[in-house]
Please model this.
Amino acid sequence: MKAIKILFLLAIAVISGSSVIIFSGVVDVAADKPHGKFVYWLLQETRENSIAKASENIIVPDLSDFELLLTGGVDYEFMCAGCHLAPGLKQSDMSLGLYPAPTNLSLTYEKQVKQGENNEAAQARNFWIIKHGVKASGMPAWGKTHDDQRIWAMVAFLDRLPTLTPEQYQILTAID
Amino acid sequence: MQYIQATIYLMLTSCFMMTSVQAHDPSEHVKTNEAPKCESMKAMDHSKMDANDPIMMAMMKKCKAQAQKEAMQMDHSNMEMDHSNMEMDHSNMEMDHSNMDHSSMEGMSKSAAGGHHKHN
Model:
């Protein structure tokens, strides 16, 4: 009986505390004010584990066809490069202004892939993120307007993006 | 004194805000279509290129399509050809009359019909 009483009081305290935080407006949601280390870790771990679980059963198709680089490249330039940058581009208004900062996908692949994650898992992860987006991060769900084939083409392009020179990138992504 | 300082701070802040607005003119954010700059391929080190590399194959396909497109769009309106100074020397031209039907021709002897003629 005493334990139930303690649990009840604890629940009341948690609800009251949460209500104060939610309704008082003390939480600063400004994108130019970074999270504290603990909150950042909490959100990042939650996000990464959620994506890993959601993408674990995705079967990666053959992405070796060079035609995929052409469609994926054009889509990347128009949909992604503004935030995720391109070879030779160090920053953009979006990459500076968004929080958390978008990953620079033109950097070497090793820097993007989580340690221990194999290439196929990374491709499945990229596919899931492009298709479904990520809540409250600025990453849209492109699956609402693009079919799976186009999204896989973007994944194929992302695989090769860190190896491209600015000149190669320009040729692959340009559209007249 | 405090009032003057506050005014100066306010003016400086306004100047910074105006500068940042000027630096981000909306036209800078407009993305325009751009043709692939295939001439940069010529400057690349071809000895290090693998013709079977998907990147290389994709670039080749894109540049080939671009070259065809440019060839189609070539403007012929400004091309002129001056025919006034063109001459043709007929002295060495031969004409084979062996297959000609002279039956309907009047005043032409049969002996002249089958031979080779030289035109001057």
